[in-house]
Automatic annotation (TrEMBL):
TM helices/strands, residue ranges: 6-25
Keyword Membrane: yes
SMART domains in the record: RHOD
Superkingdom, natural source: Bacteria
Alphabetized InterPro entries for the sequence: GlpE_sulfurtransferase, Rhodanese-like_dom, Rhodanese-like_dom_sf
Rhodanese domain residues: 48-135
Organism: Persephonella marina (strain DSM 14350 / EX-H1)
Alphabetical keyword list: Membrane, Transmembrane, Transmembrane helix
Protein name, per record: Rhodanese domain protein
Amino acid sequence: MRKFSSSNLIFLLIIGLGVTYYLYLKGYIFSDFQNLDPKSAYSLIEKEKDNVFILDVRTPQEYKEGHIPDSTLIPLDSLPNQIDKIPRDKKVIVYCRSGMRSASASRLLSSLGYDVYNIAGGIKSWRDEGLPVER
């Protein structure tokens, strides 16, 4: 029977920490917000149109290339200074290109008491599902 060497254990620990960190960044663990697949997000937007604020945290250039209809652009780096533009009495649906920046924004907003939903996979997944995008 083969024994684990200390270098094998260290390697497994590093891999485990890397996976945990990735899941944290994506908002799948240790988060106070809900990740939604694009179709579920679209359904929520359609069902509660007047009770939803759609937040795009990408750059202005990315936004011009196509965005979810009725979304508001507040780039992630300016979000802390523009929190007052986000209504507290609505559900906030956040997205970016692939889901990393929006997970960071969602974590910040949920820590401030907002009811937050992150679109998993970002606008890339939204487009892959054939959901509406406007320029």
